[in-house]
Amino acid sequence: MRALDEPLPRARPGLLHGTPVAALVGLAAVWAMAMATLPEAAVRVAGLAVAHGALLGTALAWTSTGGRRDRWAPLEAGLVLGGAAACASLHPWGSLAYVAVPAWLAWRRGAWLGARAWQSAPAVAGGALFGLVLGAHLLVNTALTFGYRVRTGPLVELAGWWAYDLGANVLAAEAFFRAALFERAYRRWAFAPAVALATGAAVLRYLADPLLPRSLGMAAGATFYIALLGAGSCWFFARTGSLGPSLAAATVFFGAYRLLAPR
Amino acid sequence: MAIVIALALAVITLAVAHSGADAASPWRHAYHVPVVVAALRYRNGGTLAALAAVFLYAPFVLPALEREGATPAVLEGLLTFALLLGVGVLSAALAGGVRRQRARYETLATVQRALDGDTPIDLAVARLRACLQGRLDATVGLAVHDGTRLVVAGGGRVARGSAVAHVLVSGAPLFVPDAGGRGALRRCFVAPLGGRGGVVGALAIERAGDIAADERRWLPVLAAHVGLALENARLAARQRRFADELAEKVAAATRRVVEMDRMKSEFVAIASHELRTPLTALQGFSELLAMRRFAPAELARIATIMRAETERLGRIVNDFLDLARLERGLAPPLRLARVDVGALIADAVEVLQRARTTHHFEVDCADGLPPLDADPDALDRVVKNLVSNAVKYSPAGSRVRVAARAQEAPPAVEITVEDEGPGIAEADRTRIFEPYYRTTAGAKAAGGAGLGLAVVKSLIDAHGGTIRADNVAPHGTRMTLILPAVP
Q1: Which chain A residue is nearest to residue B212, measuring alpha carbons?
Q2: Which of residues 26-85 of B touch A (CB under 8 A)?
Q3: Contacts of A245 in chain B (CB under 8 A)
Q4: Which residues of A fall within a CB distance of 8 Å from B53?
Q5: Residues A112-121: pLDDT tens digits?
Q6: A67, pLDDT greater than 80
Q7: Across the interface, do A7 and B160 touch by the CB < 8 Å criterion?
Q8: How many CB atoms lie within 10 A of CB B186?
Q9: What are the chain B neighbours of A12 within 8 Å (beta carbons)?
């Protein structure tokens, strides 16, 4: 028992301690240059790499155990994501290149995607079930509310979105909002304020996402589902200390979300 | 019950759908029933059931909102969301509060039960930890001062700088939101155990998850209760030990009284016999003198015998008187004077030597013995008693040696009386100075009331001296008495 056997841990540094400012500024500079010089398609690739790279890299830097290399993780993540996004823009099946991102992350941070993340099989299954319930509810609700249908193809398009979610969208969000931000907040505060911070930040990130359709109904729906998904994922993370269950939940939920076919 | 609640929610949803899927369907109120039941039955059940109800009811309200805008029916539906969530959260909080209070009372009762009975402190603390661990749904550690040491349960030791060490020093509760380490976050809370003399230990709980503010307010109360319960258990154990010791002492005293009674009875019998012997002699000789006429030489012999018997009678009576004083806790009266020990020993031995011709007497007094400030009559009785005993308990023809030598620091005179008898058994050696006590071998070998050595010891004590008995090789007894000399 740590309270008996080990000295009290040192006081935790601030909430934003260890933010890789230089690398983030570098990413912002890259994006600004791309905006100024590159065509729209290339700017979209750069924007995607910069946004997800910033989240993923900051998560790596915040959870670093002291390696100097993690200070430049946003640039490294931006490069990997940029490469995958470029492949996706060049060929319909190029989206499958996003699979390289989890492979890279597993190499960089084994604890997040390695064996430890999946060792609690019931928790991972619970996370997947949670994502499935949310996703099913989303499909039913949007069908009733907006009259959306469920699509089953074309496969190349669905596979592209799923690969994007798996390699960029879900991975970056879970790494930053759960493994980094929520983890830091929860080590300082009670569960409720930590969840409020992490989930609120995640909702803001999705509301600011240019890929989300601009309508009040969609914004309300996104807030509702992302808030529920975020709170549930935080609960799983707090219970297990592992990213596996929340990754499973988010992957399944976004998998269902991509099945929506707007009228 | 969970299945019944889930079925109820599903049935109500079907009823809402069957009645026209209206956003303001009257069936919506029925959702409150499973929500309240779940709140009463399960921890957080009310909140989860309310969320589930909102989740199930939303597909009837949100599409209407999208199609028709904020109509009164839609607003009623939205209000139902708020009501369901409010009722769910509130009833869950109320039911949770009641459940927590009941659990806390049960925990206090469990603590009392765990410390019931005469259990050693290590076992009691381990048992207490096990029962608290089950009740608090957390890893529990206990450190309790046992007067001389710190008894720890739940860990090997109290590490320097640990949370428990802090609380033992400061005496104030400590909440550690992050106990360190990798994996799921663990929080810990440590509360001091109160006792009569301040902090007697610490109660630590550690959990992967929250330790709510309400629980943090209650844990010091529990710790105070545990501290008092431990203190009570310790006092009860001490009282039981004290009662046992007292009973043992009373039993020993009773045994001693019974033994004394037995020895007194024996003494009365022996004393009667001892008194009867000289009295019979005196009676016989006095009758002879009354009836017959004797030649002067014979008359002198009879007179000598009668005087010796009278002296013997006097000695016995003196012993009785001394014993009576001894039993009243009074020291024998002394008439102190400057005494030359060497001369006193020589005179006493010479008198005895004339009466007892069966033994060889040796007197070895060192030159220049310091004078004693003592009662000469008492000292004479002491020496004669010891020499008489040596003669009585050693075979005829053996040697009796009386010696005296000076001791320097502190100035004293050591007198030893040594015989060649069988010696004194180890068990008897400490008891021979008790009144009425007679060794088994001694009782067989010679008569006597068992008073001589008790009187000798009381006289020596009154002089501020000491006496002890030792066996000497190859056989024999040495009585050594040390008397303080005039500096």
Answers
A1: A190
A2: 55, 58-59, 62-63, 66
A3: none
A4: none
A5: 777 676 777 8
A6: no
A7: yes
A8: 22
A9: 178
Low-confidence ranges of chain B (pLDDT < 50): none
Q: What residue type is B388 in one-letter code?
A: S
Return the structure tokens found at A38: 């590159």
Q: Which residues make beta-bridge pairs with B485?
A: B372
- Which long-range CB contacts under 8 A does B421-426 form with residues at least 24 apart? B421/B390, B421/B393, B421/B394, B421/B395, B421/B475, B421/B476, B421/B477, B422/B393, B422/B475, B423/B471, B423/B472, B423/B475, B423/B476, B423/B477, B424/B469, B424/B471, B424/B477
> What pLDDT is stored for residue B442 in this prediction?
64
| Tally of CB atoms within 10 A around B456 | 23
Location of structure tokens 């997040």: A112
pLDDT tens sequence across A27-48: 889 888 888 888 888 888 888 8
Q: Is the Cβ of B487 closer than 8 Å to some Cβ of chain A?
A: no
- The pLDDT tens digits for A150-160 are 888 788 888 88
Calpha distance B121→B318 (Å, rounded): 59
User: A186 at the B interface (CB within 8 A)?
Assistant: yes
Judged by CB atoms closer than 8 Å, whether chains meet at B209 and A191 is answered as: yes
The CA distance from B395 to B477, in Å, is 13
- CA dihedral for B279, B280, B286, B290, sign (positive or negative): positive
ipTM for the complex shown: 0.72
Tell me, yes or no, if the pTM score tops 0.80.
no
Bridging pattern class, strands B360-365 and B399-407: parallel
Determine contact: A217 vs chain B, CB below 8 A.
Answer: yes
Strands B399-407 and B412-418: antiparallel
* A222 neighbourhood in chain B, CB within 8 Å: none
